[in-house]
Amino acid sequence: MGEEDYYLELCERPVQFEKANPVNCVFFDEANKQVFAVRSGGATGVVVKGPDDRNPISFRMDDKGEVKCIKFSLENKILAVQRTSKTVDFCNFIPDNSQLEYTQECKTKNANILGFCWTSSTEIVFITDQGIEFYQVLPEKRTLKLLKSHNINVNWYMYCPESAVILLSTTVLENVLQPFYFRAGTMSKLPKFEIELPAVPKSTKLSLSERDIAMATIYGQLYVLFLRHHSRTSNSTGAEVVLYHLPREGACKKMHILKLNRTGKFALNVVDNLVVVHHQDTETSVIFDIKLRGEFDGTVTFHHPVLPARSIQPYQIPMAGPAAVTSQSPVPCKLYSSSWIVFQPDIIISASQGYLWNLQVKLEPIVKLLPDKGRLMDFLLQRKECKMVILSVCSQMLSESDRATLPVIATVFDKLNHEYKKYLDAEQSYTMAVEAGQGRSNPLLRRPVRTQAVLDQSDVYTHVLSAFVEKKEMPHKFVIAVLMEYIRSLNQFQIAVQHYLHELVIKTLVQHNLFYMLHQFLQYHVLSDSKPLACLLLSLESFYPPAHQLSLDMLKRLSTANDEIVEVLLSKHQVLAALRFIRGIGGHDNISARKFLDAAKQTEDNMLFYTIFRFFEQRNQRLRGSPNFTPGEHCEEHVAFFKQVFGDQALMRPTTF
């Protein structure tokens, strides 16, 4: 299998830590994404490494018994260590604060601490088998203050740091889940909900296992993912992942079911809003996208894997350190190993090898694996790093070898412009709100974020269309049809078409002598009026004489002032066209000769200069009876230039009657 076939990979630079062994215990903190390697209970050292900090934190602590759990508060300010089922020890890592340990016992009598979670740099939650206790840590006083507690029988718990929600498993079957939400010193109880367990024979003991539950944020919403090993409906085989949406307000609701069509050992990750399901038996993974259209049965949406199952891309463990000899080749890493532990959203840890990886999605291979361009676009537009891949898909569908049909091309353009329009509307609403002074009264007013899914006209023009029209082997009718399709799509979404796209159409039409088509496009306003377009038409006059009038009509429709039209033409070096226009409206007796001679000289076309010079000589003769320029016209340098190029004899002699 070539490298281009794997759509999942482990990150290039994993976090490396000392392998787990009888002396060295390894812990992972999901909130800070840190790995703790604790040697001999901390007596011979604790090393803390995270994905972002390349400088590990190292310290020692007294060996006061086996460490059950160890985590830093957010920003690494306070260390909490649980060694017994009744207490948690604390140590400040804040400069100028006492380094002495202090201890907090759980408040509930006869309760055992199952674990703890930091919800901020100074707030911590103890989860016991009899409930939950929310504390504020006061580091300078080396004490804790109980903010709130709640009594409930707890089997196990789960924490989602991104959304600050703790899930408690209650009841004998363990399948009633009670969520709590934490924010700025407050603890809120959310509505509890029940996970539907699969129907199995009565003899089997059934309960909800912590292993089969995960919590993750997908498309900005919090979901509880339940890996159900047997479907509730007897006719379907294989396991499935059930997604329960857990809103801030209102009840939790079953929304999606991901069909795995296989059984065995599974693990879940969430990467770039995709649910990744790893299957240990076949050593492959599949991905699901809940934004793609599935089969809706009135209450839930059923989804199938977006792509065929593939292994994670083979990974070589680099030989590191001074002992690494250049001749030593990297060691292949055992993928889908039974020693792998998976954490949300995208973390895979191999404690036996001493690595922490982030799982990543590769978009390029997906292009070949998803032949349906419409579905491919729906998929790509939701991904974080999608821009260059989408542009390459657009170029590819316009290439000779992979040419798509016009309806497919139209669909792709419409999907791009739908995203583009959404962004433009959001940007406009934001601007209007700011101008109306709502920014002060509404602190939630935020400028819309421009994601990579927003491909504007300059992106498509630069990376796709400008190269496409240059392709000699393409039938010109197809080229024009594609350009018009893109313009149609922009118009459909009421996006103002940039003049350079119209210019591209006109240049392509002229190149193939399709003047009748150009005339029709302008006549029926398929190409929108603009000054740059009018100038372009003027420059075509020598190939297509009616272009002159078409251009002037356009400038008039734009209600451009006459002197502005002249300025526009002169700036584009259309000196003769400017002169003709002035004559056409009868203003040629009052224009500045110097301005036109300047413009003619700038073109470095001596014959054009001769023609313009002769015109003004004739005007002078008609108006003043002499072809010579008056001193007030400041044309001395142009007269000198004319003599230098054409000689004195070329000057017009005064005509006497």
Task: Give an overview of the whole structure.
The chain is an alpha+beta fold and 657 residues long. The strands form 8 sheets. Strands 20-21-22-23-28-27 form a 6-stranded mixed β-sheet, with no helix packed on it. Strands 1, 2, 31, 32 and 33 form a 5-stranded antiparallel β-sheet that branches. The model has no long low-confidence stretch (mean pLDDT 87).
Short description:
By secondary structure, the protein is α+β, with helices and mostly antiparallel strands.
Give the number of DSSP strands: 33
Query: Which term fits the overall shape?
Result: elongated
| Separation, N- and C-terminal Cα atoms | 96 Å
> Order of strands in the sheet with the most strands?
20-21-22-23-28-27
Report the sheet-strand fraction.
25-35%
- Which structural class do you get from the secondary structure elements? alpha+beta
Helical amount = 25-40%
Count of separate DSSP helical elements:
16
Which runs of at least 5 residues are low in confidence (pLDDT < 50)?
none
**Which radius of gyration do the C-alpha atoms yield?**
37 Å
Round the mean pLDDT to the nearest integer and report it. 87
Query: What about the largest sheet?
Result: 6 strands, mixed
Main location: membrane
Family: Belongs to the RMC1 family.
Protein name: Regulator of MON1-CCZ1 complex
Keywords: Autophagy, Endosome, Lysosome, Membrane
